[in-house]
Design goal:
134 residues; alpha/beta; Rossmann fold
């Protein structure tokens, strides 16, 4: 994936770090200047993904960013979108899906799984505040 990111960013440097780096890096280690695009892979780490989202937004504030995570739930996806994420890609994703999501987000589009924003299941409690049927 890193090779493909470098192809997309032929004119800009590509910095590759672990997700935990967002929490551990000193201010001097952070990139200087605006960050055009960030890809945050929250899968395969024991670190709280919500903390990683907060750290990415507060420490790097990228203009566009894509989050990869294992089975994103609606709360996580909504939180990421609320912080400014342009997309959330469930892992595992094929290289083609990942490249397409990166290209879409870098072009200014959004990429969120439909199931993460699905309508909630209707409540079994009826209009009279009862679960009685019939």
């Amino acid at each position: 994936m890193l090779r493909h990111l470098r192809e997309f960013s032929a004119l800009a440097p590509v910095l590759s770090q672990t997700p935990e780096w967002l929490l551990e890096a000193t201010p001097a280690e952070l990139p200087q200047g605006p960050i055009d695009f960030a890809l945050l892979d929250c899968s395969g780490t024991d670190t709280d993904p919500f903390r990683l989202l907060d750290a990415l937004q507060s420490r790097l504030a990228p203009q566009r960013w894509l989050v990869m995570c294992e089975a994103p739930d609606p709360a996580f996806t909504s939180y990421a979108a609320g912080l400014g994420a342009s997309g959330c890609l469930p892992v595992p994703a094929s290289p083609e899906q990942t490249r397409a999501a990166v290209a879409l987000v870098r072009a200014g589009g959004q990429c969120f799984p439909r199931r993460a924003f699905a309508m909630p299941v209707p409540s079994p409690i009826g209009p009279g505040r009862s679960t009685a049927r019939g």
